[in-house]
Design brief:
Blueprint lengths: L17 H7 L10 H6 L3 H14 L8 H14 L3 H13 L4 H7 L10 H16 L4 H6 L4 H25 L17
Length: 188
């Protein structure tokens, strides 16, 4: 967490406008109270658009298998120093098949031993996209197993979660009670 308090406080039920309520209705009921969505409810039209794109990124329509998608999301969140994103997707990543050891090793990146060639290429692509906004030819070639659609969806996924991380960090979105802070990303 970059900030110890929100710059933009999540809206309470009493503060929700009809437009904000309508936007939150598209969020699964269990998540409607999450700080990320209650903060975004300040801009209901943007929240609605965010959910449409985010739902694509997290759907089976995304050509990246769930485990590989979560690998990319976690690496992106870590590179962006987004404590909220990291904590939220540690849970989602485990549900998608990442082990606790793999999640911890995502912080090290592609150079860590034990990654498959494709996993290492995904992690390297995340580094290149976040740091240089470009996947190099060797990394692009190493991602060939994903096909063109998978490589495009990898770029889309990293882009989505870079944007989300920027909002979470800048607005000071704090962890929900169900999330565990990571000491490497706590109050940077």
């Amino acid at each position: 967490m970059r900030l110890s308090a929100p710059r933009i406080a999540p809206l309470t039920d009493a503060e929700l406008t009809p437009e904000a309520r309508a936007a939150l209705d598209a969020v699964p009921e269990f998540a409607r109270a999450f700080n990320i969505f209650r903060t975004q409810a300040h801009k209901p039209a943007a929240l609605t658009a965010f959910l449409a794109w985010g739902n694509y990124i997290l759907s089976a329509t995304n050509a990246l298998p769930a485990r590989e998608r979560e690998l990319a999301i976690l690496r992106t969140g870590y590179l962006c120093k987004a404590g909220y994103e990291w904590a939220q997707h540690c849970l989602i990543g485990q549900q998608a098949g990442l082990t606790g050891t793999e999640i911890a090793t995502i912080k090290v990146g592609a150079a860590a031993p034990g990654w498959s060639p494709l996993d290492a290429a995904i992690l390297r692509a995340c580094d290149e996209l976040v740091l240089d906004h470009f996947i190099t030819d060797p990394t692009w070639a190493a991602l060939a197993e994903l096909g063109d659609e998978g490589r495009m969806d990898l770029v889309y996924t990293v882009g989505q979660y870079t944007q989300v991380s920027m909002l979470l960090n800048s607005a000071g979105v704090q962890l929900d009670a169900i999330l565990t802070p990571d000491p490497d990303l706590d109050h940077l």
